[in-house]
Amino acid sequence: MRQIITVMVMNRTFSLFATLGLLALSLTGCFEDKCEQLMTYYSYNPVYLSMEEIRAGVQTGPAQALKQPGKMYYKDGFLFISEVNKGIHVIDNTDPVNPTPVSFISVPGNLDIAAKGNILYADSYLDLVVIDISNPSAAAEVGREQNVFPYGSWHNGLWADSDSGIAIDWVETEITEAMDCSNVGGSWSFGRNTFASQDLMLVSAAPNASNSQFQSGTTNSAAAAGVGGSMARFTILNNYLYTVTFSDMIIFDLATMTDPVERNRINVGWDIETIFPRGNTLFLGGMTGMHIYSVDNPIAPEFLSNIQHVQSCDPVVADEEYAYVTIRDGNDCGGSVNQLFIVDLKDLRNPVQIYTYNFFNPHGLGISGETLFICDGDEGLKVYDATDVSSITAHQIAHFPNIHAFDVIPLGNVLLSIGEDGFYQYDYRDLTDIKLLSKIEVTP
User: Fold this and answer.
1) Rounded Cα–Cα distance for residues 364 and 376 (Å)
2) What are the φ and ψ backbone dihedral angles of 391, each rounded to 5 degrees?
3) Integer Cα distance of 123 and 272 in angstroms
4) Comparing 18 with 436, which gets the higher pLDDT?
5) Which domains are present in the chain?
């Protein structure tokens, strides 16, 4: 007797499908000494890129179209947008009405960026890469700190092999073979690659993740750091680069900017997602809470306090009085809560959550004076007057429902917005008449 069973091995769940007719047949007749069944399953085999190839991959070439934009960073009139795991788009944004693509810096495995002076810092899988951007059309690697980020620090399910390198893709192979019927109802044994789990499949994390620091203008001094969005894992304060992995804060000394030196690595919990600076204070967003650290001693951040919440994604921004935290559900985040909550920061050692508002699926956010910008998933970009934090949602200023933004950077006059459908800029000097200035659409 032979019956055919098709197995789709997906998300670590092995599902066996057989028709009721065949099942009935197997129960009612055709008893033979030998019973076989054909089983079809899919094997996913990694395509590796060696660390030697990865480390030789930083090159600057012509501008490219946005395909899968990640985080963005603004510095001295230039915009840097990460193309997830591929590199960095460089855009001249001195005229926000007419942003002009300049070049594309290939950086394998890049997700996060930060800049100080003429130096751009970028992750490349395990390494921290130092790039001279004094000539953005001919940016060049000038330094590298190897193996400073553990496997999978940013990349969901980074699959690495000490000999082969890092998996940058997976090849699907369909396999059909005869199996003994005695396995019916039992467990199947498959090889190591016979699965396609979402969290192990590719090094392509959702663009979760740019640290947001409001600045009241669009011009930075040459020696200053730039500014990112609310979902960053990199931020620069004075002469130090602070980065967060899922569990650690890693501090790099930038005294010699082309040669960052790791000064400390401290455990800050687990499931950490974002880092945001305010003065000498760092706010870390995690899946279970917001954590506050003082960097009065820049190489030994002091834990001050935390605010816990249900499991969810958690970017945070802050002004002098309050922290604004969005939490949302999602495949990577878990949970089922979609909210904005306001935290009173009068006492950083004892922050108090004071107000909570329900949203659709809030992602990144930004605060500019008393104006709050929230990226609310499929419901688009929303703008609120946050003068009275006890009634924020009652004072909506504007709503742009037709974009799917996941992070913003408010620059005093111009709002930068990045999302699945592209990069948008808005003039918000007149809050009663916020105008779209320009957009760069994603090319599928």
Assistant:
1) 8
2) -150, 45
3) 17
4) 436
5) 1-48+159-202 (no CATH), 65-151+205-441 (2.130.10.10)
Report the alpha-carbon distance of residue 59 to residue 69 in Å, rounded: 19
- Judge contact between 366 and 317, C-beta under 8 A: yes
Which segments of 276-394 does DSSP mark as H helices, in order?
A: none
**What is the C-alpha separation between 367 and 136, in angstroms, rounded?**
29
Q: List, for residues 306-356, the tens digit of each pLDDT value.
A: 998 756 577 999 999 999 999 988 756 666 789 999 999 999 999 999 999
Q: HSE (CB half, 13 Å, CA atoms) of 213?
A: 26
What are the angstrom distances between the C-alpha of 36 and each of 1, 95, 178, 279?
A: 6, 70, 6, 70
- CA-closest candidate to residue 149, choices 173, 128, 172: 128
Q: What count of Cα atoms within 13 Å lies in the side-chain half-sphere of residue 214?
A: 22
Q: Which of the 8 DSSP states describes residue 20?
A: H
Closest CA to 102 of 111, 93, 90: 90
pLDDT tens string 80-91:
999 999 999 999
Burial 363-389 (b: 16+ CB within 10 A, else e): bbbbbbeebbbbbbbebbbbbbebeeb
pTM of this prediction? 0.80
